Amino acid sequence: MKDLILTDDSSREYIVKDPKRLYDHLIEYHATNEKADHSVHEENGFYFTVTEDLFKKVENFVLNNKI
């Protein structure tokens, strides 16, 4: 399995150590009806605006890698 790499709001790359945990967190705290709510997620000093693109990237990674 390849790594899930996200670019934060400051254009820094972040390697997600546990994509499933992140996906579950995004659903619970940063989505409404499984749609991104454009809130800001902080992880280890990296800040991400939860857009549809970011949400779908994480979701597709988790589903395609069956994790």
Question: Notable features of this structure?
Answer:
67 residues, single chain, two-stranded antiparallel ribbon, globular, alpha+beta, 30% strand
Structure description:
The protein has 67 residues and is α+β, with helices and mostly antiparallel strands. It has one domain (4-64). The protein is 36% helix and 30% strand. It is built from two helices and six strands. It has helices spanning 19-29, 52-64; strands spanning 4-7, 13-16, 31-32, 35-36, 40-43, 46-49. The strands form three sheets. It has a two-stranded antiparallel ribbon. The chain has a two-stranded antiparallel sheet with strand order 3-4. The chain has a two-stranded antiparallel ribbon with strand order 5-6. A hairpin with a 2-residue loop joins strand 5 and strand 6. Helix 1 (19-29) crosses helix 2 (52-64). It is globular, with a radius of gyration of 11 Å. The N and C termini lie close together (10 Å). The relative contact order is 0.23. The model has no long low-confidence stretch (mean pLDDT 95).
Measured between the Cα atoms of the first and last residue, the distance is 10 Å
Instruction: Return the structural class.
Output: alpha+beta
> What is the succession of H and E elements?
EEHEEEEH
Give start-end ranges of low-pLDDT stretches: none
The overall strand count is 6
- Supply Rg: 11 Å
What is the residue-mean pLDDT, rounded to a whole number?
Answer: 95
DSSP strand (E) fraction? 25-35%
Which shape, going by the Cα principal axes? Answer: globular
Number of helices: 2
How many individual domains? 1
The main pleated sheet reads as:
2 strands, antiparallel
State the share of residues found in helices, binned by percent.
Answer: 25-40%
Physical arrangement of strands within the biggest beta sheet: 1-2
